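hey can u check if this looks right to u? its 553 residues, i copy pasted from the old doc so theres a chance i mangled smth
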Amino acid sequence: MTDRSTLDLSSRDPDWWRQAVVYQIYPRSFADADGDGLGDLRGITRRLTHLAALGVDALWLSPFYPSELADGGYDVADPRDVDPRLGTLDDFDALAAEAHRLGLKVIVDIVPNHSSDQHVWFQEALRSGPGSAARDRYVFRDGRGEHGELPPTDWQSVFGGSAWKRVPDGQWYLHLFAPEQPDLNWENQEVRADYRTTLRFWSDRGVDGFRVDVAHALVKDLSEPLRDLGAPELSREEALTGMPPGSHPFYDRDDVHEIYRDWRKILDAYRPPRMAVAEAWVPGARRALYARPDELGQAFNFEYLEAGWDAAELRQVITDSLAAARAAGASATWVLSNHDVVRHASRLMLPPGTDLNAWLLSGGHAPAVDEEAGQRRARAATLLMLALPGSAYVYQGEELGLPEVADLPTEVLQDPIWEQTGHVRKGRDGCRVPLPWTTAGPSYGFGPGGAWLPQPPGFAAYAVEAQDGVEGSTLELYRTALRLRRKLLDGEELSWAADAPDGVLQFDRCEGWRCVTNLAATAVPLPAGEVLLSSAPLEDGRLGPDTTVWLGR
């Protein structure tokens, strides 16, 4: 078991999150205690010793609330309860207590942009009719056209198609995601008050922080007449760069920040203060606003996740990210995988410019990915990420080196993107396949029965059981890296080496801790220093391609 003594000291630090390693759990795919094929809270509790042994600081739970699973749990019917298929509030309390006993912080996902269409508020809105107070909690509008038969605007859903759905009485409601996820109206004071209650509810139960889903979309310009975008086919990123900052009708509006300043007062009323991190798909300078100390404090760094395996590109992204975080008074965040993207053990091996959806539709065969080479590159990327100043967010299973399951048969897909886009986009199921814990069994130890998404036979070789205690395994690399990181970490600065060869990233951290990553095609000389850890064997004192080494001086 990892020595938690230093973590126990840091757990009393209100700024523990600034350089924490946070492990994301997708509850339905982590561990199944009751054998129904769906992961649950008791399953997570039973496996928390894995996280303690891994050496992370905190766990982040993706939504576990009552949900019809129209969007993998992000369609929330009650943000202050537990889905009966996943457990009870007592089960949550037991999970949090065991996590805290092991020295682990607990972060929960909240989803303030929208609710489920099964939420009592939305059901009341459907019954109450146009102009009612119940409908004002959501965004209902009359349609255009002679008989109101056209959507109010040309706004498009992230999942494809119009962002408006018509109800039987003729009005339309806004859903930036699935139709089962109606957007809340954040101009309504009852909505704001209810989320204050939610923050206090979970904070009172001992939650240490919150991950805020779609943090940039809460506030919309609902002044009449509603504005068309004019080019609805543009992506979120394209739409944001095409108009003045803060002026998009429903993304990243300046008014959203007053909400988070209000939330920060609530979070700071606890001892220690509760942390928060924004999921905000906005350009770096705008993202930093969400991370200001009087708002959420941190924001996910998607530029880093989306960067290619290229030394110059990564150096620029790292430099810019650190500068933006510093300007905001925040710490930087780093992430390689999560529940929404192709796992980096596969993604980083694809040629630059690869259409990831086309690759998924090909079953991962066009182009094919060399899994062994993908492991090598993913391990190098991991050591690079863990050496950077700031917080690292680790997605469940990446410590096992899991690749994307790109060849899931279409008949088993669960992600609504597949149906919403008319079978054009395959969706995110390939990164959500349940974890393998053992080398045998109906679900490789995920539970006593099968799993809600099929696991490929190759998962047996990646199982915790197959890697535990095995020198050189990806699991043991993570454990060693996190143990070393805890000892070496100090300060939030780095200095780039001026004489690094082309294709090599080299920087120094505090106390002479040096990280060197070779992204070039050939081996390079290893700088002087004591080798503390290497992502792959060294080649006669040389650093091979796709390899990261940590050096001490």
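The chain has 17 helices and 18 strands.
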